[in-house]
Amino acid sequence: MLAAVMIVEGVLRIPDSEGHYDTGWGLYQALNKNCRLHLLSHTWTEQDIALWLQKRHITGHQSYLHAPEPGPVGRLEALQRVRAWRIGALVIESDPACAAAELAAGWNTALVTPAFQGPRQPSASPAVIRPWDHLAVAVERQHEIRLTPHTPEHQ
Asked: Which of 3, 25, 28, 58 is 20 to 30 A from 52, alpha carbon to alpha carbon?
């Protein structure tokens, strides 16, 4: 049976976010049905990723690998553990530099890059992205306005 190692950040999980990519989720489901799937992350510990996966009812993968550092060196070090299991594996990668290093090290690698990474298509995005704190303040202010009674003395 084929084995696959899916990089969590950039394939399954949106980097620096709690969200997931729908494409990554579909790929996870398809691979999980047809091969031994292992997840690899450099950002979260095994407990953190287990909680994130449990919240989304993402189950069934074989194991979780933690890369000691971001980038090609950390990925290759984590993948050495898979190689020690004496199984061949397809690496599902989101970082072109890491994919190049994995290919050079003899790994079968598929590069997956999301077509769009935000609430809008890139052509419709504003030139300047609003910081998250400003968005949170705006949402809180809108919530306060909705809860404020609209009587003449409040206007």
From this structure: 3
